[in-house]
What we know:
Layout: E1 29-33, H1 39-52, E2 57-62, H2 70-74, E3 81-86, H3 99-117, E4 123-127, H4 129-134, H5 140-148, E5 155-159, H6 165-170, E6 173-176
Amino acid sequence: MTRFQHPHQPDPERPPELQDPAHFEQGLVQVITGGGKGKTTAAFGLGLRAVGHGLRVHAVQFMKGDTRYGEFHSVGYLPHFTVERFGTGGLVDMNDPSEADKAEAERGLARAREAMLSGEYEVIILDEINVAVSWKLLALAEVLSLIRDKPPNVELVLTGRYADPKLIDAADYVTQLGQVKHPYQKGILARQGIDY
């Protein structure tokens, strides 16, 4: 039987490298995109794995200003994993985003740059940034500039549908999640704790 240890308490039976921030040298750029479910889930799963090896993770969520997303709450139980949300809390009009939506996305991108260059994190997750670019909340050139300025010891993960081909070209990993079946097709709506 596995013994449970609260994540915020040092565990004398765990090796030090799994308790303290780890040395990390070869950070790459990942894009997780496509029409299938699981892009945010994959990125946060990567963050969970990283924390398990002593890496520090910071996620910036675009267009997710409200608090209903489970991942925002669950990372509070993990050491070295933080999340910041940027969005108005309402739905974004993909054809005509509001100035407030654009301003929130810009704030998120500025914060992502600050976190990436701070030396405090080895993994930066930019959740739904591909959508923010596609819907013109952010300029593609600004996101490409962020990628170019990434320090060598930072892993940068970009999620969301509609990844621009230039973002795909700039990435080292590209994962495209496709949809085969979806419960929406049966009239089943998003379920708390599973879909958000």
